[in-house]
DUF4031 domain-containing protein
Amino acid sequence: MTVYADTPRWPRHGTLWGHLISDTSLAELHQAAELVGLPPRSFDLDHYDWPEAAQPRLVEAGVHLVDNGKLTRILIRSGLRIPLVGRPAARARRSAEHAAQLGLTSVPRDLIVGLCGHVDPLPPAADAAPAAFRMTRDDPAAPPRIEAHQEAGRLAAAELLDQLDALARDQGGTGFIGQVLADGS
């Protein structure tokens, strides 16, 4: 297994984050992430985000630590890289596929069914429509985590969750598990 990690330097959630990649396949990447205890939610199209505190586990598992530039070059050579300019289209394709899987006719800006992967962050209030929201639910028995700047976003999230729960139950599930980013339009 040849898996690489760069130096954590991206701040979020009170820590610094790095990227974990494979030079071979996404299957190898998912296997390595599971081995070092990264949650499936930390997958982001072509890499896993990993918190600075996970570095000892990465080293113990044999992950090769490289600088940020080398990591990018390795990912490009692997053929797995989704360039920054292509990420919105990749997210849109994934969202359309997941919406179709559920039978959802209106496709949100970013949708993930299941536990693997995460949607983009909710834009700042100044850039978000009143009904914009980001919702996460990892357990259908638990309430979702809803991020919204305005009440209209919380209401839109609750309305969509009702629809997603019904669709998931129609397919034999107990309710929706996944993430949604809706731009409020």
Remarks:
- The radius of gyration is 17 Å.
- The chain has a mean pLDDT of 95.
- The CA atoms of residues 152 and 180 lie 16 Å apart.
- Residues 3-81 form one domain.
